[in-house]
Design goal:
71% helix, elongated
Length: 154
């Protein structure tokens, strides 16, 4: 609803203003607002199938990514291919451990996106569900890219 979106925007606006003008008086007020905005009801939030199913899919893809990297990338390799472009070919080469940045960024995106989705869930369920499916969509393409890199390096 329109009023829910306005309320959500107003709440995040108060949080940002509280962070800018951080003083001893408004720290407690800021903590109360953040608690109301972010921690609505995790039990109700994760009980929603449109939220929990993409999260489960993203976690399964993350486990598969870490498993495929751990068992297919040799740690004794000096330099490996980190990026491949169809026009230029290999355009980024680096150490073997740098390939683990990709699934680590995936975990960061899951955490940040679900934190934001949970904070919006009270006011706009459609947006929260859309953000949840976006994470799964992102992880599908991340999985394809990492599998291509694993194939390129083996």
């Amino acid at each position: 609803t329109q009023s829910g979106r306005a309320t959500c925007f107003f709440m995040w606006h108060k949080i940002l203003l509280g962070l800018i003008y951080l003083s001893r008086n408004n720290i407690l007020y800021l903590i109360i607002i953040v608690k109301e905005a972010v921690f609505y009801s995790p039990k109700l939030y994760f009980r929603d199938l449109w939220i929990s199913a993409p999260l489960a899919g993203s976690i399964l893809l993350q486990l598969f990514l870490w498993w495929s990297l751990l068992f297919n990338i040799r740690q004794d390799a000096g330099q490996i291919f980190l990026h491949y472009n169809i026009i230029f070919g290999v355009d980024l080469v680096g150490n073997w451990w740098q390939i683990y940045y990709l699934p680590a960024i995936g975990i960061l995106i899951i955490l940040l996106n679900y934190l934001f989705s949970a904070s919006v869930y009270l006011f706009d369920k459609f947006l929260a569900r859309f953000l949840s499916f976006w994470v799964l969509f992102f992880h599908i393409f991340l999985t394809i890219g990492i599998l291509l890199l694993v194939g390129l390096n083996s």
